[in-house]
Structures are given as C-alpha cells and as structure tokens.
Design a protein that fits this description.
The complex is a heterodimer. The longest helix of chain A is centred in the middle third of the chain and has 26 residues, at about 100-125. Chain A is mainly α. Chain A has 7 helices and no strands. Chain B has helices at about 5-25, 25-50, 60-90. By secondary structure, chain B is mostly helical. The chains are: A mainly alpha, B mainly alpha.
Amino acid sequence: METVSFADWFKEAANWAFILIALPTLFGAWRTVTSNNIVRAVLYLVVSLAGTAAMFLMLGAAFVGLTVVLVYIGAVVILFLIGIMITRAPLGMEAELSHGRDVKVPAALLSVVLFAVIAWAMVDAFGMYMIQPFEPTLTSDLANTLFDRFVLPFEVVSFVLLAALIGGIAIARKDDEGGNR
Amino acid sequence: MTIIQFLLVGAALFSMGLYGVITRRNAVLVLASVELMLAAVNINLVSFDAYLQDQLNSGQIFSLFIIALAAAEVGIGIAIVLMIYRNRQSADVDELNLMKG
C-alpha cells in the first residue's frame, strides 16, 4: 500500500477541499449537540449532513451523496422540525434542553476517550495509506448490484419501511372519543 | 487522499453524537444526535468502499440501507415522542421514569 508523508498531504488540492468540507461538518455536529436553541440545533444538523454528502461526492459515491441530501436534509430534518413544533418545545429559550454539569463532564470525558480509542486504533491500522485513484461509481452499476446480489435485503428494507409507515400511523393517531382503538 | 482523514471525521462525528445522546434532555434532540452517529457510520462505510476498490460497491449499498432504516427510525421515533407528549405534556426523557423501581 502506498503511503504519503504529512508534508506531501498538504500539497494535494483535494485535501484542501476536504479540510474546507470537514471543518463545517464538525462545527455543525458540535453545535447540534451543544446549542441552547432547539431549532438552531436541528438546522446545524443540516450543515453537518450536507458536509457528509459532500464527502460522499469526494469519494465517488454520487448516488449515496444525493440520497443523503434528499432523504436526510429533505425529509428527516423537516420531520424533526414538525416534531419540535408539535411537542411545543421551548422555542428560543435557554430552557432545559441539556443536562447540567454533573452529566456533561462525564459525558464529555467518555466521548473524548471513545474518540481517542477509535482514532488510535485507526491510525495504528491505516497510518497514511492513500486511497488509490478510482473511477466514480456509476449509478447504473450500483443499481445492477442492488437488484441482483442484494435484492433480498432490499425487499426486507422495503417491508421495514411499510411496517414503519403503518406503525407510525397506529402510534400517533388520536384515540376515539369512546376510548376503544 | 488518505483513508485516515475520513475515518477521523467519522470517529469525531460518532463521539459527538454519543455526547449528545447522553447530555440532551429533549427527546427530539436525542434522535438528532442518533442521526449524527448514523452519518458517521455511513462515512466509514463509503470511505472503506473507495479504499478497498470494492467491485460490488457493498459499502455504498449498505449505507443506502442505513439511510432507509434511519428514515424509518426517525418516523417511528417522532410518532412515539408525539404519543408521550400527548400523554405526559412533556418531551423530556428524564420525566419518563414510570419503570423505575
């Protein structure tokens, strides 16, 4: 496997593009978990997810990236906003969106330790191995594999989506006036 | 491009998602933090797909499955939060301690 030195890494233009994508992604994730405004927290999630979509484009996975834009940014974030509005969460207040310091400090410690362990394991295993130059994945190739080799998991996922649809309706509908469902 | 840069971003997103799941009290924000963790997993799958030059593109296909399942999970999660809010007038996960002994 081909490796690259740290100095040479900065000479590649794609890596500067990566830095420009990674910084907003991490900042968006950070604000998502720390923001005191519930609507802003969800909207920062859009920044973070858009950054992951851009990374998928960098890795030649155009279809996955565009699916993230459509499904996550288009549907899931809207669902979150609907959930916020229906539950009348404290909009714009500094109210109790997060725990106090007694939970935050151990949680931050745990997260940092988890990140250190994962990062150490990955640096140990992969070091500065290059990703070899690759052709972007064609959506038609992806479709051929999906409907050939992976057709059974695809059908199972379709069934899960149907079950989630029916379950969501059954859970969220209002009870009848008589009390029987 | 190296593989480690994508893996480190994925690890950072996963750790931040874990922090959010532990510290957030509002149920909708807990779900949003879970979404961050799933996005981190997707980054890992797609970057290993490119790194291993997989002919079947298994990494991308599995990340598509994860996206579909995450959408289903959020739909059910919001429905449950809505039900809890209707019964308890609150979306605070700390107040759901009925099963505490």
